[in-house]
Amino acid sequence: MTISMAGKRGLIMGVANERSIAWGIAKSLNEAGADLAFTYQGDQLRRRVEPLVTSIGKELIIEADVTSDASLDAAFAELKAQWGTIDFLVHAIAYSDKTELAGRFADTSRDNFLNSLNISCYSFIDVARRASDLMPEGGSLVTLTYMGSRSVIPFYNVMGVAKAALEAATRYLANDLGPRGIRVNAISPGPMKTLAGAAVTGARRTFKHAETNAPLRANATLSAVGGTAVWLCSDAGACTTGEIVHVDGGYHVLGMPRPETMPNPADAT
């Protein structure tokens, strides 16, 4: 079955460059026929995002700072003025001070904890509330998470806690917005070679380990994540909500690495 998004409009939040997961999702939605609008934060990101938006024949790009109520008010007011309604929203926004991802989680500072939870979790709640007002006929909200939410991942630290909160928020939003026909889901890709992923210490080792041990012996691709987003945003996902959909080659089902990839105790003697 070929999924068509023709006639549907949606907002993509969080494109950083051509390797970002948000951009992979945007390309897949565009190829399926969706009309897209994009947000950016600050002139530096605008310079990166605008050429990408133009390259797929789109032009609606709106400034939005998720830490500012005034900025979000203005962004969604502009979106309403331009389109009136939307059918879906993709939230791909997260942040933590990378210097605090390299040490112990126990040493997380109060300021970074609050900032990480604000940007990585509360922002989804905030934009979901605003976006749902533009979905009178129902719609779909999609965010991005990672398995560090439920398992300890080296160098992920407070981001694991933020993603756990995000996943809980996804379930609560699904319950709140379901009666209005609005579905809320999260996609959980495995390690990916993105700008955000590269900021995490040990990213290359994590990527290789997951690729070597995942049941499919592969990490997620941008097109695979994008295809999953198309399904969740389309009518094909009409009865799916409150879910954390893993797109990680099956890595999340493992309890331990494959035996042949584990250190041999004899080598330590």
UniProtKB/TrEMBL annotation:
Keyword check for Lipid biosynthesis: yes
Active site: residue positions: 146 (proton acceptor), 156 (proton acceptor)
UniProtKB keywords: Fatty acid biosynthesis, Fatty acid metabolism, Lipid biosynthesis, Lipid metabolism, NAD, Oxidoreductase
Recorded superkingdom: Bacteria
Gene3D superfamilies: Enoyl acyl carrier protein reductase, NAD(P)-binding Rossmann-like Domain
GO molecular function terms listed in the Swiss-Prot or TrEMBL record: enoyl-[acyl-carrier-protein] reductase (NADH) activity
Cross-referenced Pfam families: adh_short_C2
Pathway: Lipid metabolism; fatty acid biosynthesis
Binding positions for NAD(+) per the UniProt entry: 14, 20-21, 41, 65-66, 93, 163
UniProt-listed CDD domains: ENR_SDR
Catalytic activity reported: a 2,3-saturated acyl-[ACP] + NAD(+) = a (2E)-enoyl-[ACP] + NADH + H(+)
A GO BP annotation: fatty acid biosynthetic process
EC number: 1.3.1.9
Protein family: Belongs to the short-chain dehydrogenases/reductases (SDR) family. FabI subfamily.
Protein name in UniProt: Enoyl-[acyl-carrier-protein] reductase [NADH]
